[in-house]
Input
Amino acid sequence: MTTAEKIGQLVQLFGWHAYTRTDGKLHIDDKFAQQIEKGEVGAFYGFLRADPWTGVTLETGMQPGESAEAVNMVQRIAVEQSRLGIPILFGEECAHGHMSIGGTVFPVPIASASTWNPALFQQANAAVADETRARGGAATYSPILDVLRDPRWGRTEETFGEDAYLCGEMGAAAVRGMQGQIPERGIAATVKHFVGYGASHGGRNGAPAPLGPIELREKDLYPFEKAVEAGAMSLMTAYNDVDGVPCTSNRKLLTDILRDEWGFDGFVITDAGALGMLAGGHRVAANYEEAAKQALEAGVDMEMCGEVFQGHLMNAIESGQVSIDVVDQAAARNLNIKFRLGLFENPYANPERAEEIVGSSAHRSIARELAEEGIVLLNNRNQLLPLSRSLKSIAVIGPNASNRYNQLGDYTSPQPPEAIVTVLKGIREKAGAEIDVRYAEGCRILGDDRSGFAAAVETARGADVAVVVVGGSSARQFGDNTIDQVTGANLIAEGDSDMDTGEGIDRINLTLSGVQLDLVKAVHESGTPVVVIYINGRPVSEPWIADHIDSVLEAWYPGQEGGHAIADVLFGDINPSGKMPLSVPKHVGQLPVYYQVRRTNGRRYLEMDNEPLYRFGHGLSYTTFEYSNLTVEPAQIPADGEATLSVEVKNTGGMAGKEVVQLYVRDEVGSVTRPVMELKGFDKIALEPGQATTVSFTIGKDQLQLVNRELKRVVEPGEFKLLVGGNSADLLEVPFTVMK
Output
């Protein structure tokens, strides 16, 4: 390979610029065709993507079969016209469905985490991979394994929550689902953002991450290690720095830990614009040539957007700043993944399969099941839910009751109205002709306009129950100037957008935006029983609602089948089984709030205690579960031994239901300060009324180890407590000993 061809394998360009549509026909742009023919491009990002950043709309975007043909046009140039015939790697966004026209829109990751069902999530990711590969995409930039510290962060919806163990289990499931059908239908998973992106100061996107080395290894690195063990083929660097060293030029992370310790054998890609930030943001490089040198020597193999490598790497090589050896190393890693994906044997997409599989009813069914299991019943005083079939009328009120984009989340492609089942539509279909379903918007997400309150209150007064749907919006707007053209993140600007969460939208509080709380209060004062449903991307901290509204559901952004899932739960056709993957504070001043805090003599605040509004692992059911007979055998083991922990769980209510049995471990005395407890296992079970079962967990080094002062994972002798229950507050416990 020539030096230019080697550099080409390190370059990923924005794909939506590579094609044009003339007289209804797609054409590959001459400039890009020439670059492909010369071997100057190794990969395209977002070739199939549609959203406000790309400017690709429902009208201009590619339908499934057409998109597969467009990919094949590119591959024919690369394979049949270039000197070496190396296929292009098409990388696509698949955070909760392939971000392309017609792709199935699944619930956002925080909703999937609320299912506590990795097996179901693996099925969903396999479906996403199938849709993506049929159109020609062979890699994706998910899952996000950032351990969340501050939910004011706009990307909270893309995470699996605050717990490293839960993030690791869901992340590994995503990797297995995405890659399980390689080479025919699977795609390479890219785990991101490596590392500490969810631990930024103040929940601000890309801000520095104040992490010590022990916490970094125990929390933030743990999910990535599990994903690497599951076989992840790719990894993306984070924008932030950790202790002053940008992640994109951090050899300790990208080589010493990732490759030498963990044995990672895939390729490392930067986030969009991250390589340039070394010179233009972090200012650890004087120019782009030096930025390229730092990134390559640290362990970066490919640049998303390609600006620095394409524009400056040749100069850096010719001037002697960059050794050709590190370029060879990176190119070889990228080529290796192309071989493992089967692109050399079969670089072409399947238009017929794309038309058949993309957005299929089977995939929508999985999306619906995932949404159903991700709904969390936060409150249900007086058993207002499930709703009675004998109701005469229901008032459906609120800005998120009938806005289809508001229930989909960030990283979503444009959608035709008929593809999305809103809450209003789902309730109307469920209620049928027997129940009168009335609707009033009441207000919007943002702004102080209360002009719709009167109609909302009047609608509620005439109904047996009012379902008020509030929360947030990650819906990006077409035709405005709020999109960063480098990263795709939202730039806060005046306009018609209701967006209050999503990438680039970080907040200073967790209350409902605008006048939504006032709307809930006004409907409550009507005297009609009220159910509040949150549709949102970050947790809502509204103690008034928790205290005054008997029944509250957290649905997150539930995807295109969300309206059906919510209606199923409201009427009791589905018994809610979701559990919170994060803690919800009573007040933003309590932050950071998470359950696995290290033990301390720290005091409460003057104004308020330290307890959250809703704890990690919280989630109610329409039935009840009883835990008993917690035993561990043997009760003492050596450091390399194992024991079996068992507990009996019985459905003591009158309705079939699913329960998440949660295992926590408390290390009573450690060589370093230990958390009050840590999640170390869980199992989601289904029980009929009166049915009981025994759930067992293995207790060994994975459940007992810590990171010591030498940054080694070890099991220390001493006393432990093993705790089991349906949430992190109400737990049975049994003592356990690791012998010297």
